[in-house]
Amino acid sequence: METKTALIKRMHRICVKGKDPFIQPGAETQDEITMTYERGDSSILNKENSLGYLRTTQAFAPKSTAAGHGLADVMCGHKGVFGITTKDREGNDLEYGRAMLDMKIIASTMETIDWDVEDHDDGTYTVSYTTNILGPHIISVRIAGIPIQGSPFTVNASISENYNLRDEPLFILSPEKSGLSDPTAVATNSSNQIYVVDRGNNRIMVYSEKGEEILTIAKNEEDEDILQSPQSIAVTKSNKIIVSDTVNNQIQVFDKDGKFLHKFGQAGEGEGELKEPDGVAVDAKGNIVVADTMNHRIQIFRENGEFVSTFGKQGTKEGELLYPSGVSLDKSGNVLVCDCGLWNEASKENNNRIQVFNTDGKYQYEFGSTGQDTGQFMKPARVAVDKKGRILVTDMDNSRIQVFKNNGTFLNTIVRRGKSDCFDAPCGIAVMQDGRIIITERQSNQIQIF
Question: What's the CA gap between 332 and 324, in Å, rounded?
Answer without folding.
Answer: 21
